[in-house]
Amino acid sequence: MDTSTVSDRDRALAKISENCLVCNLARKRQAGFALWLVKKVEGRICPFCRAYERVFGRKSHEPGPNGGKTNLGACGNTEEASKSRRE
Length: 87
Fold this sequence. Notes:
single chain
């Protein structure tokens, strides 16, 4: 997604969706009522979910890269943590 079309208002609205209890539950569990609700509401009604999609390039119920988990390897959450040697 072209980030030059994302406004400060979009970022502020996406932050609300990022901290939303229902959206977080849907991202974490990927099942149940919260996921169903977010899928039905996000695109049609919720301005926060629509802004989240514009800012992050994915639906608000979809987990982040790496399942939303931090790489806690030897270099834990650094650029080097995700790199592996190719031999």
